[in-house]
Amino acid sequence: MKRWGDLSQDTTDHLSAGAVLDQAELAVVVTDRFSNVLYWNPFAEQLFGRPGYAHGRDDTISISIMERDHPLGVELAKHVLKGNVWEGTFDVVRHDGTLIYVRAQAVPMRHTSGSVTGIVITAREAMKSNEREKDRFGLLERIGERLAGSLYVEETLNRVAEMLVPQFADHCFIELMEGERLVRKVSTHVGGWQPPADTWKPVGAEIRYPIGHFADSALRRQETILVEDFSQVSYPSISEGAARVDGEVGVTSAIVAPLCARGESLGLMYLSMSNLTDRRSPHYDAFDRDFVGAIATRVAIAVDNALLFEEERHTAESFQKHLLPRELPKLDGLEIAVRYLPAAPLSSHGQGIQTQVGGDWYDVIPLSAGRVGIVIGDVEGRGAKAAAVMGQLRAALRAFAQDDKPPADILARLDEWTRILASPEEDDYGADVTSPPIVTCQYMVYDAWSRELSFANAGHSPPLLIVDGSVTELDIGDVGKPLGVRATGVHADLVYKEETRVLPPGATLLLYTDGLVDRRPHRESGTPSRDLEEAVRVLCDEISKIADEPVERIADAATSAVPGEIDDDMAILVVRSGGGELEFEESDYPAQPIMVGEARRMARNAFERWNIPEEKGELACLLVSEVVTNVVLHAASASAPRRELVLDGPPLPFDESWDFPDLEVDLDLDLGREGIAALNAAADPEKKFTLRLRRGGESIWVEVFDQDLRLPRIRSAGENDEGGRGLYLVDQLARRWGSRPTPDGKAVWFEIPVGGR
Q1: Are residues 387 and 487 in the same domain?
Q2: 40 and 86 together in one domain
Q3: Beta strand 479-480 with 452-458: parallel, antiparallel or unpaired?
Q4: Would residue 321 count as lying in a domain?
Q5: Distance of CA 527 to the CA centre of its chain
Q6: Cys-Cys link to 612, which of 88, 389, 607, 641 (CB 3.0-4.6 A)?
Q7: DSSP letters spanning 472-485
Q8: Do 284 and 254 form a contact (C-beta atoms < 8 A)?
Q9: For residues 100 and 66, is the Cβ–Cβ distance under 8 A?
Q10: Residue 539: which pLDDT band, with cuts at 50, 70 and 90?
Q11: 401 and 538, same structural domain?
Q12: d(CA 18, CA 301)
């Protein structure tokens, strides 16, 4: 007998390194320092599912390792090239699409000089060797990582099926409890095979396991049940079709594990093997049962977390939905589209409502005479607190907007309100250190008849203006400080300035919050983050391609125009001015009683041209007479000069002289010829009023402008009072009415609905 090593030349050749590695049932892969594959043996080709792979062309990461494990491959290379040994588990997708878990060990390959010249990797399929107990912990860790990264029930269950088929099973069913019902959520099978109709229950079907079925026992006893060999035992089947397909595919073995969390039963996980695949062992054993039970525990926790998260997400979405406008009003001369996307959840925290709700908001507010307020805003931060602040600010702004004051005045009031919202805080010495929330806001008022856009800005990104296919940022001369941050002692009127533009027909404005352009790069892209200027350029370029499309299309395109992952919630508001001219009439009159009839006549003629229904036209003419008459009477009785401070007593209350003594609109009957003559004589010939009529799609608006600064209000009239009922009549018969200050005085307006054209 020869000693080891004392061999013939033929035997020595047979025992060469290459020959031994060709026979080994262990994958061996050799790479250089740059992870380029230099060699791998035949078993590596079989394990990674890449027959005939031409090594030397790609690196180890690209051979079969799943994309989500690429960072792990980079970590392996860095660790080993420093002279260390690495061991761990990879997810591998074979060339045919099947997924397996591979246990690998990597060691440095050294030159005779001792320097590290490459990496030697040995690998095998986990759970398929005598080291199953060792592999178990590694796989459980990997499965836990996969499940921990999922916050949605459907995604979690799909990941479970992906991990178990075909690695451990040919068939995987997962059923969850919905009240008292057990409903199938997953039905995954090896190689894309699908059960014939009317055999195994499909996804969404209610599952009722008969008494004595092993799955029923697992659910009732709350323990993992193993059926090692179906040829040795018999169980009742769910249906004849299920029994038939069991025989056709040759189901050999099964494990059913209950999904339990927090003492509650969430459902079942059902795994089985069949003759659809050729496995070394077609039967599960006690070790597999314990391992699947351990997996089920982790799956149950992940499903429970996902269910809780989805409940919180539903709460968050409902919360946000009710804080934002439920539906947009129909407005003349404007096309509107809005989008809101909640913040992406923080996968590592899973604090649903804390991470998805944000402080971004938009609003469209109908104002007087068909004018509209347009709002976009963003409260700094995210979570329920930011959303609560946003809800209060939106409600406050809507209330302030009804005063019809200029946008700069509205932002000044909103700034004061933002400071009120701050919770009082003091430092250790009692000094006030209250920190108001920081809010950016853009408030605009658009008049579709004049196409005039007035606006003020509180630190918000300027909207994009789309005109004739060109997309640019709206030129804003004065961008004020965000709400809540102006310096103490500086009045808000000095911070927020009003500007005015005239929009051409068909012009489009795209208002947005910074969540639209402030994106994270995709994890797998490896590209650096874009700065905001570059992101805005990308947005402009993408929008310019569809500038002539409908506003809904522009809103959809804007949400995905900037590449990257959404990191913050975002609001988008797209408004487009109409291309046609809206109908209106306007005339100036001396503030004399005789002009009331002229104003009424002008209104009647306009309503006839606009085909206003006779009943609605007469009602509008009645209210025109009421408003104009009172403006004339007030102009005639007012003796104090406008804008002059009277020091010897308060000015005459406006409501005392606003209303005409009777509801009749015929001045001859109310005052008589002598009364009219007296008022005409007392009337100031320099005082005038303007009557403006506007025709909308479903309403007509009447505005009366005069030069008095005092705004009217309704007052109660007693039984014997001759006045005090004019505004009451307007309030009762008009859909809406109001008054607003103007640069030269005030305007009183009302709206009468007339239906469609």
Answers
A1: yes
A2: yes
A3: parallel
A4: no
A5: 24
A6: 607
A7: EE---S-EEPPBT-
A8: yes
A9: no
A10: very high
A11: yes
A12: 48
Q: Can you give the pLDDT at residue 652? A: 44
* Domain end position, chosen among 126, 143, 177: 126
Contact at 8 Å (CB) between 689 and 632? yes
Residue type, 603: A
Question: Tell me, what CATH number does 570's domain have?
Answer: 3.60.40.10
Give the tokens for residue 410.
Answer: 């509205």
For tokens 């061996």, the residue is 28
Residue 549 and residue 624 in one domain = no
Single pTM value for the model: 0.65
- Answer yes or no: is pLDDT of 102 > 90: no
Beta bridge partners of 467: 470
Tokens of 579: 């291309």
Q: What are the tokens at 480?
A: 């004020």
Are residues 24 and 108 located together in one domain of the fold? yes
Q: Give me the sign of the Cα torsion angle 20, 25, 26, 31.
A: positive
Domain that includes residue 80, residue range: 17-126
Per-residue tokens: 12: 């020595």
First-to-final CA distance of the chain: 112
Compute CA distances 365 → 362, 398, 688, whole Å: 10, 7, 31
Q: Please report, to the nearest 10 degrees, the dihedral formed by the alpha carbons of residues 342, 346, 352, 355 taken in order.
A: -50
Helix (H, G, I), strand (E, B) or coil at 37: strand
Same domain, 200 and 296: yes
Beta bridge partner(s), residue 261: 264
Is the peptide bond preceding residue 325 cis, with omega within 30 degrees of 0?
no
Count of other CB atoms within 10 angstroms of residue 313? 20
pLDDT in tens, 81-97: 888 888 877 777 776 66
Is residue 323 in a domain? no
Give the total number of structural domains in the chain: 4
Q: For 379-412, write each residue's pLDDT tens digit.
A: 887 777 788 888 899 999 999 998 888 999 999 9
Name 173's bridge partners: 187, 270
Residue 514 per-residue DSSP state? G
Residue 523: count of CB within 10 angstroms of its CB? 11
Domain assignment of residue 6, yes or no: no
**Size (the chain), residues:** 757
In the 8-state DSSP scheme, what is residue 516? G
CATH number at residue 273: 3.30.450.40
245-262 in b/e burial notation, b at 16+ Cβ within 10 A?
bbeebebbbbbbbbbbbe
pLDDT mean over 628-635: 80
